[in-house]
Design a protein that fits this description.
InterPro entries: Cro/C1-type_HTH (IPR001387), Lambda_DNA-bd_dom_sf (IPR010982), MLTR_LBD (IPR041413). This is Helix-turn-helix transcriptional regulator. Pfam families: HTH_31, MLTR_LBD. The chain has 239 residues and is of the alpha+beta class. Strands 2-1-5-4-3 form a 5-stranded antiparallel β-sheet. Helix 7 crosses helix 8. The longest helix has 19 residues.
Length: 239
C-alpha cells in the first residue's frame, strides 16, 4: 500500500496507527490515488485531515478509479493517462519502454506540447516527416484549450510562456489554426527497435479531462514484432 501511495512503509504504518504527523495536501493526494478513491472519497479524506479539497476542474490530477482499473489491465501494452495539456500522470511499463518516463518532468515541461517547442530532443522519438504536422497540431490544440478554459487558465499561461520563448510557436500561433486532430497512426523512431507504426486509441474521462492513450500495432506487421521486443524492455523497468 505504501508503494502505491509513493511513500515509505514506515511513514504509512505510522499514519495507520495515528502516530504520524498530519499529512500534507500532496501526501493526501498520493494516498487518495493509491487507494483508488473516487473524487467524493478523496474530498472526504482531505476534510478528515483538516485540509480543503483540491478544486474539481480540468486542472485536477486525481485519476478516476475506473480509468486506473483499465490502465492496470494493460500491463502488456504501451499506454498512458494524460491531462488535456499533455501532462503524463501514469504509464504502463511498456509505455515507459516506448516513450521513456514522461512522469518525471516538472513545471511547464510536464506538458508534451511545451517540450515540443522548447526541448531539442523532444522530437527525436517521432519520424521527421511528421514534425511539421505535429507542430501545427500542438499549437491548434493549445489554442482550443485556451479558448475553452479562459485567459486565467494554465493553458493560457503555457501559451504565454511559449510566445516568449519560441519563434516557431509564435509563427504557427499567428496562423490561428484550430481543429487539427491527432492522427490515429503514429510514426515513432525508437532508439532501440527503430521505426514503429502504432495505432493510438483514446479513452476520455469527461469529468476530469483526462485521456487514456493506448498504442497498438496491427498483428503480423513488423511493428507488431517490435512491440514484442519492447515488452521485454518494459518487463525490465519493473525491476
Amino acid at each position: 500500500m505504501a508503494t502505491l501511495c509513493n511513500m515509505s512503509a514506515d511513514y504509512y504504518s505510522r499514519l495507520e496507527r495515528e502516530r504520524g504527523p498530519q499529512p500534507s495536501p500532496q501526501m493526501l493526494a498520493s494516498i487518495a490515488q493509491g487507494l483508488h478513491l473516487s473524487i467524493d472519497e478523496r474530498d472526504h479524506l482531505f476534510r478528515l485531515a483538516g485540509h480543503n479539497p483540491p478544486p474539481r476542474d480540468s486542472s485536477s490530477e486525481h485519476i478516476s478509479p475506473g480509468l486506473l482499473r483499465v490502465l492496470d489491465r494493460l500491463h502488456d501494452t504501451p499506454a498512458e493517462i494524460v491531462t488535456e495539456l499533455g501532462e503524463t500522470l501514469r504509464q504502463t511499463p511498456m509505455g515507459v519502454a516506448l516513450t521513456g518516463d514522461t512522469t518525471q518532468y516538472t513545471g511547464p515541461a510536464r506538458s508534451s506540447g511545451y517540450r515540443w517547442f522548447t526541448e531539442p530532443g523532444a522530437r527525436d522519438l517521432y519520424a521527421p516527416e511528421q514534425h511539421a504536422f505535429m507542430t501545427r497540431m500542438y499549437a491548434a490544440g493549445l489554442r482550443a484549450i485556451v479558448t475553452l478554459r479562459g485567459p486565467d487558465s494554465r493553458a493560457a499561461y503555457l501559451a504565454d510562456l511559449l510566445l516568449d520563448s519560441s519563434e516557431e510557436f509564435r509563427r504557427v500561433w499567428d496562423d490561428h489554426e484550430i481543429g487539427i486532430r491527432p492522427r490515429e497512426v503514429k510514426h515513432f523512431v525508437h532508439p532501440e527497435v527503430g521505426a514503429l507504426e502504432l495505432n493510438c486509441q483514446r479513452l476520455i474521462d469527461p469529468d476530469q479531462a483526462h485521456s487514456l492513450m493506448v498504442y497498438t500495432a496491427v498483428p503480423g506487421t513488423e511493428s507488431y514484432e517490435k512491440l514484442q521486443v519492447l515488452s521485454v524492455i518494459g518487463t525490465q523497468t519493473l525491476h
